[in-house]
Amino acid sequence: MKKLLSIALLIFGVLLSSAQDSKPNYVAENYTKKEVHIKMRDGAELFTSIYTPKDTSKKYPIIMQRTPYNSGPYGADKMKRSISPSETMMKEGYIVVYQDVRGRFMSDGLYDNMRGYVPNKKSKTDIDEASDTYDTIDWLVKNVPNNNGNVGTWGISYPGFYATYSLLSNHPALKAVSPQACIADFFFDDFHHNGAYLLSYWKVTPLFGPQKKARTTEPWYTFTNTGTNDDYQFFLDAGPLSNLDKYYGADNEFWQQLKDHSSYDDFWQKRGILQHLNNIKPAVMTVGGWFDAEDLYGPLNTYSTIEKSSKNYNTIVMGPWSHGDWARNSAKQVIGNINFGDSISGFYQKNIEANFFRHFLKNNGKAENILPEAYVFDSGKKEWKTYDAWPPKNTEKKAFFMQDNKLSQMAKKNFAFEEFISDPKKPVPYSEDVKQQGLTPRKYMTDDQRFAARRPDVLVFETEILTDDTTLAGDILAQLQVATTGTDADWVVKVIDVFPNEEPETKEIAPHLKMSNYHMMVRSEVMRGRFRNSFSKPESFVANEKTAVNVKLQDVFHTFKKGHKIQVQVQSTWFPLIDLNPQTFVENIFYAKPEDFQKQTHKVFN
């Protein structure tokens, strides 16, 4: 019997562009490019590239991406190799627009990282990304020939945030928006997870740090070169975060902001966009990857927030992708050692994304091939499923109890505990391969977790061999009861699919990759203990006192097959994915001293 569950674990005790297959000169042969500076209401001019189909016999909708990364190549005679969200849409014909956001590259003004929304604008100087989007759309529909009056926006990662932001512009021409791998809040996406600083992002902090001095087509920032690929050893040798200051110049504004705002204060709160997503009018298709190491919180919470607060057309697509994989065409969709199938991104581009924009921008929302509410990929069965709600309506919530190294639905009435020593000098690696991989390490999201299970500072709980397929659909909440000899601690919870010993080797990724007893990580998350009651008001632990800590893991859709086991691991370091917790409470960990970092004993009660 198949079980479809929404599970609560109870423990009592980039820079992306579409990788498309069209010939290199397709854009030049079929589109005309124009570059303009569009004036905003406060006088600032934003650089905008406009690609218009050469076939002027019909009108086209406008599809726009706003980006902080650059909208180049610059020069009216220099064309992108591919434009639009996908090759399918590029060949269908859209007016495609790219814009440098305020303060970046060829646009005027000051850049503000995740600029806060101004809800009640009283003058032309009250500007934000919504007003810039409105002014841009207004100019485009009035000045670009052969447009049909319908506008859509899309973007992946940071451009996905600007796509979400466009929903707040309230321009009547904006009909369809697709935030993809979208940032929603920097305290829960990218640079932080539940208050823990993602050290894996440290190297790219200059990307958002210094202000440029004038319009430019070239980067004005430089990335940090540590001189080694061994990030684990580099950060371990570096010691406290304050020792990393020497790698950045005094003008790195964002690094200083990270240091000065270590809790969820007004600085972060006013930059969060979810609180403003009310009464949304355009159609929205939010897209994300189940194995997105950068932005998983954003897509899931953008969709759920709009679903609760608006009556518009709202759908979610979640596939077996890492950050932005759906925009890349590949024969096989592989993350780490797991192959999820063939041409999954191509299927999405042709049958989901193109249909969405065509429906609302070309057919005025009147066509019949509208998408389901939720188009989601089961990462265990490796197949697409559709539902009329997410999570699916037919789920049942189940409690699993962690006790005596077992994961069971039967709770024992005892007060025993498991304990381990957490030593900041010997932190648990997040992966056996700790080298930096692009913006953030990605393949660890499906990594084999046996290396961690063998460590004495990682607790392991698992079910008996499953006699039926068991599907997890929705969010996971780990309700921990813990104690520590220290006054602060991080709590990391991982949900793992343990393959059977009889699992065949794979030939699709690496020759004869052994999958017998493979421990595939399905979902994981960290909770910085000081924020267990409030992200804005950190508080210490009382040493040796039993304390409740809830760890909310993001949604999953994964079938643990018959013959597999469900495993949960609990640990307190995850290095160098996240920074080290001193395990001694200090006001601001960014300013912790070497002597603050102490070895402590942690308990997890049954």
Provide a descriptive summary of the structure in words:
With about 600 residues, the protein is α/β, with parallel strands linked by helices. It has two domains: about 5-15 and about 390-605, Galactose-binding domain-like (Jelly Rolls, Sandwich), CATH 2.60.120; about 25-185 and about 275-315, 3-Layer(aba) Sandwich (Rossmann fold), CATH 3.40.50.1820. It has helices at about 25-30, 85-90, 130-145, 160-165, 230-240, 255-260, 265-270, 295-310, 345-360, 450-455; strands spanning about 5-10, 30-40, 45-55, 60-65, 95-100, 145-155, 175-180, 190-195, 195, 285-290, 315-320, 330-335, 340, 375-380, 385, 395-405, 405-410, 415-420, 460, 470-485, 490-500, 520-530, 545-560, 565-570, 600-605. The strands form five sheets. Strands 2-3-5-4-6-7-10-11-14-15 form a ten-stranded mixed β-sheet, with helices on both faces. Strands 1, 16, 17, 18, 20, 23 and 25 form a seven-stranded mixed β-sheet that branches. It is globular and about 75 Å long.
Features:
single chain, 606 residues, alpha/beta, Rossmann fold, 25 strands
* Cα end-to-end separation: 29 Å
At the fold tier of CATH, the topology name of the largest domain is Jelly Rolls
Percent of sequence in beta strands: 25-35%
* Major sheet attributes: 10 strands, mixed
The CATH superfamily of the largest domain appears as Galactose-binding domain-like
